[in-house]
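It would be a great kindness if you could assist me with a short task in structural biology. The matter concerns a single protein, recorded as an amino acid sequence and a row of backbone structure tokens. Could you please explain, in whatever detail you think fit, how the structure tokens follow from the sequence? Thank you for your consideration; the sequence and its tokens are set out here:
___
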Amino acid sequence: MMRELGRIWPVYLAVPGIVALAPASAMAAEVLLSAPRQGNWLIRAMALEIVPLNLDSEISYIGGEVDTPSDFVPGLDLSYFVTDHWAIEFQGGLFAREYRISKSSIGAFDVGTVESGAVSLTAQYHFRPHAALNPYIGLGVNYAWEHKVRPAAGIPDFRVDAIASGIANLGFDYRLAGNWYFSSSVRYVISPAYRFEGQGFNATVKVSTLVLGLGVGYRF
């Protein structure tokens, strides 16, 4: 009798552990099945904060500095998984940026709003594509061009150069349920100098941009 109890006792001791592990194992299996894989797409809808950094400017005749504030905009991006770890992210749309001149010889005044079209392409490496929390890093390029200029009152019409910029990107996707994810990302956009050209008004502006994003993603 004691011998039989000795044989089955380890089984009883193991039962609580097996029960505790079962949900975790089931969850891990579910995460694995719903993880992005080669040939999958992941679309993200994001709320973005656009923060200008290291702004430098040179203005003809009147001097001063060009200022532009931070802004919040909606964003949408689409990633295609070339392999389980490597993805190509596509992003594009329209955004507006307000410009103001301060510390000039004629004081401070609004310049206007520039609406720009932009498209970007980023290669991303996903460290843990089969885990619930999947961080990634990426490098890419962004191309932006003038779509519409709305000069402020009293400012003559002007144009803005198109520019190509480099992108450094990091972020993560956290699986919520099924094919749904919580997403967060940081983009550092390194832009060359670009010019504002108008009647009696010329300025050269160089600014880098930090783009902070939070949102949800869906894999298909």
